[in-house]
Design brief:
Tetracycline Repressor, domain 2, homotetramer, mainly alpha, 2 domains, DNA-binding, Arc Repressor Mutant, subunit A
Chain lengths: ~200, ~200, ~200, ~200
Amino acid sequence: MGEKGTAARRLDIIHTARDSFAEKNYHETKISDITKHLGISHGTFYNYFKNKSDIFTHIIKIYIKKLEEIFLKENPGLSNNAIEFRNQLIRLGNELFDVFIEDQKMYDILFYRARIAGLEIKKEVTKLFKTADLFVEKYLAHGVNKKFLRSSIDASLNAKAIRGMTTVALEDLMENDAPLQLKERWILLLSNFIIDGLS
Amino acid sequence: MGEKGTAARRLDIIHTARDSFAEKNYHETKISDITKHLGISHGTFYNYFKNKSDIFTHIIKIYIKKLEEIFLKENPGLSNNAIEFRNQLIRLGNELFDVFIEDQKMYDILFYRARIAGLEIKKEVTKLFKTADLFVEKYLAHGVNKKFLRSSIDASLNAKAIRGMTTVALEDLMENDAPLQLKERWILLLSNFIIDGLS
Amino acid sequence: MGEKGTAARRLDIIHTARDSFAEKNYHETKISDITKHLGISHGTFYNYFKNKSDIFTHIIKIYIKKLEEIFLKENPGLSNNAIEFRNQLIRLGNELFDVFIEDQKMYDILFYRARIAGLEIKKEVTKLFKTADLFVEKYLAHGVNKKFLRSSIDASLNAKAIRGMTTVALEDLMENDAPLQLKERWILLLSNFIIDGLS
Amino acid sequence: MGEKGTAARRLDIIHTARDSFAEKNYHETKISDITKHLGISHGTFYNYFKNKSDIFTHIIKIYIKKLEEIFLKENPGLSNNAIEFRNQLIRLGNELFDVFIEDQKMYDILFYRARIAGLEIKKEVTKLFKTADLFVEKYLAHGVNKKFLRSSIDASLNAKAIRGMTTVALEDLMENDAPLQLKERWILLLSNFIIDGLS
DNA sequence: CATGAATGAGGTTTCATTCAT
DNA sequence: AATGAATGAAACCTCATTCAT
């Protein structure tokens, strides 16, 4: 290569593609959009990725992994009372929202663009949401167990409802110029909603 | 035409297009998918719609209007206490969910396919969600006013949160084979969540 | 269509493609070679054939069928002595050679271009040659049976050898400007060779 | 280079290219097929050959030379009677078939792949066949001269016919797992066919 | 109104070849 | 000599749209 090294060029391509996919959608994103923006020939793109579908899949898989890592890191059985539970929710919310704030394109790609992809990637994204739902469900079950959540709650549906609120929160953060302050409000709201609504 | 009259044929085209858009996405839906399914020629399509974008926009606008009518019909200032409020929520939830259950394609088109469309249509859908948020916000403000909702709530964010839960509820209903029973569970959950969480 | 009718246009495309394939090979034949020659747009080509492979396969299948019909029409068990046998060989040779003389591109396509095609078509052509070998073998076996051919002959190899001579005969005819006279010489030679060599 | 010396590397490239051309055809053979198989870079290939066409031509010319040497080595005027003639045919057949059995790729490349090459190489291969025909013709003429072959034979066409049989024999040998035994049968058949058919 | 043949802009992808290191 | 990143010509193919009948 010379100037930049091939790993750096690969990253350049990924970032440019990510931006375009976030903004425009798979079909509207042309290979030439990416290469023109980087000032390289379209042939070069194909030295780094097999085809358009390849880079799209690649980007989405990175995002999926990022989120799954958050879920794996946390332990749903950690808190012993409502106060500890709330603290855990706050920590979790911060982690999750920070990932999206850090890479603002992630939301669009994961929530909109991915739904359109080929079956294989669509399934993986659907699986991600199911994983998230189950993850929340475990928290609720633990809270019921420890008696700081009502035993009568519909855990499965509530988990989904919480995912729905979180999704909208993310959407709201993404549209906002000062997401950090808004984040606090949302985390407060979500933890209140969950604890007051379900205890 | 002959047999059916041109209004009926226009409807045929709309319905076929709707089914295809719901299932496949704007770009994956070919004009020939529609015309082949109806047994008519390409050319005929263009006697009824200016182009592909035209019919897509048309379908989405129908849906937007349908939902806006629900919002307009209800009066946020009607209930005087928590019990009446809950009944109103239940009635509203039923109306909203029924529209989607009746036309199962509506969810996919409005929540996924529309997001991808050209800027103009994207804006209209975004506006629809803002309208929904405002609509909910009015309910909450009224509840605060009548003192059956806490005065400290963050009405704007809560409205969005409620929209998020509702979206997930719809998603869940659409995936389910017996949506009517599930609907009851969701309406119960949503009204509980709102009233317990916010009062 | 208008001027020519769609069947005629389809034929035009087939003939032009055939000429190009005969002269140039599958990969060297560009769709634009065909369409430019016909003065139509390349899009039009795709209204008549699915893709390049499609028309190539189509042409070869026509040829295969043509030859198989010749084999089916003749009855290897018809002749009772060497004279009748020779007459049958002459008739058969005439039929076969005439088909190739009539459509001079057939030889190149079947003997050279087809060998390069995808596996499926390659197999069909190989099968055609095996069919031809078996066909000749039956004639030889019948001759042995009727005792106007030696019983010691290696029927399987001889059948192939005869096919080899015939192939070269065709090659020779194709290169020649006055194939009809040359045809007589070849038929004489082949029938002599077979009867004198094997009786 | 180091280890092997550049002449050896050149040979490596030729052999790999030969294998690929035999199996796959000119256009299906990518430069990267060759270099990947050898574990060298693209660029290296171009240190040894001008371009893809160059190495293809080179390989075919080697083969052409090999065959022409066989023809030059033999003397058509050597045999004085049918028995000596037959022995000569047997010797010749063995030599020819052995060359092809030894390098099984030769048949495919010379009989199929070469026909597709650019005009120049096509002409050389055609010339080779003409040389072979002439070579056989001389044998036949000598046999007529010496009176152990009929004087009425059509020497030119018969030479071609013999080439046709030989080609099919080669094809048969190449497809067979035990070519050495099959070779005997073919040599027997060919010499019988020629001597019985033409004397 | 209906038809459907024709069009061609526009995109994706391949791969031989170059050249600076 | 060897490397391999970069190039870009060149091909394939799709499909919305037009328009003459």
